[in-house]
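Re-run with default settings, no changes from the original entry. Doing this only to confirm the output is reproducible before filing.
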Amino acid sequence: VQLVESGGGWVQPGGSLRLSCLASGFNFSRSTMRWYRQTPGKEREMVAFIINDSGVTHYPDSMKGRFTISRDNAKKTVYLQIDNLNSEDTAVYYCCAYVYPSLFWGQGTQVTVSS
């Protein structure tokens, strides 16, 4: 199982980014995919998840409104669109897949929001 995130970088407040996570080594279309983020000194928090072929999505209440998760099963890629970024969104963003019986993580992509 391999998960490779990309798309992070520096962005000014109010800007947007689209993160990508390319998956390999497992049945991607049947797997629920998740995005998490982590800042130094804080626990990793879930941003969103999207369920296999159905495409059903879920966002914690604190993440509703500015985050959009999507997937392209043909490309084995899951995306995270982040709009109206603010400084509190500065974090390393990770994608995650549960492939029985283990949880797998990518290496993360850094998002920095500052003026």
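The longest strand covers residues 91-99. The radius of gyration is 13 Å.
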